[in-house]
Amino acid sequence: MPASAETLMIMRISPAGAAGCCRIAGMSPRYDLHSHSLASDGTLSPAALVAAAHAAAVDVLALTDHDTMAGIAAATECARPLGMQLVPGVEISVSWRSQTVHVLGLGVDPDCETLLAGLAGLRAFRDWRAEEIGRRLARAGIGGCYEGARQLAQGSIVSRTHFAHHLVARGHAASVRDVFKRFLVNNKPGYVAGQWADLEAAMSWIAAAGGMAVIAHPARYNMTASKLRRLAGEFRECGGAGLEVVSGSHTRDNTIAMAALCRNEGMLASTGSDYHGPENPWVRLGELAALPAGCRAVWESEHWLNPAACRQFISNQARGTRIRQAD
Ligand code: AMP
Ligand code: MN
Ligand code: MN
Ligand code: MN
Questions:
Q1: 159 lines ligand 1 (CB under 6 A)
Q2: What's phi and psi for 145, nearest 5 deg?
Q3: Where are the domains of the chain?
Q4: Rounded to the nearest whole angstrom, what is the distance from the C-alpha of residue 37 to the centroid of ligand 2?
Q5: Which residues lie near ion ligand 4 (Cβ < 5 Å)?
Q6: Quick one: pLDDT band at residue 13, thresholds 50, 70, 90?
């Protein structure tokens, strides 16, 4: 039986789910469950990110770098004396039906060998892809991009964002958005198709690390409503718990649509800015709309930051899928 809807229905609102670290008594904590540091394509160090989140009155911050947890230890260290709760997270690149989808693992164990090994595999592909992007841009007449992007990445993962910053700095485009449109997306000279984790693999890594899985910015994939429903349904069957309903990259209409999808699929709702640094003034840490009515927040679930319950949830779901497939 697809247990997810029922299971999620009976999840209680757990008093322990609230961080208990809100700075103003009687007010609910401020959550921001999606952010990036220099460990991936953010521009602030983990320490500076935590300080900025604290200055923005965030009580609970998830650091969710792309395909790496290298910033978690430093962020956790810096958050502790500030009384801020740092949720260890990661944003995993997943290939689903030849599209790239980002899956957040929230509350993952940053020392989990299974998750670390999975992410290392993705970074190996990233390294090859970065060189390939460089070769393709060189063929299109723009040399030195791989070296430029690597330099900006400062030893961390190399992402398309680094290429974009390099190309803007070299005057090849007016803005990061412009670079993506002209060079780094499908049918453009620097585009290389992603070959990331498959959904089942990503879910098994998150399960091993005791985390909760959430689809990041679901409205940003340019999918039709029916394809998005299929993604949400398959994700839920693999043990996915939630959708990021409120995101720094969602419009108000996106949020309303994703809230409806979330309710219809019986999933939990998450909220995160997807902050990458102060260079983008449109996205601010912790400045997020309230979750629409009828959405149950991830932190209200008894599974929140409960590794044993999260692990059990994903493996029950995955088992259910296998039994159905075998029927
Ligand atoms: P990658 O994981 O290396 O393929 O890079 C993906 C990252 O590029 C995303 O996480 C965003 O930070 C950034 N990105 C993707 N598309 C755009 C866009 N159209 N404009 C600006 N940044 C983008
Ligand atoms: Mn990014
Ligand atoms: Mn993303
Ligand atoms: Mn992100």
A1: yes
A2: -75, -40
A3: 4-120+197-326, 126-184
A4: 9
A5: 91, 274
A6: very low
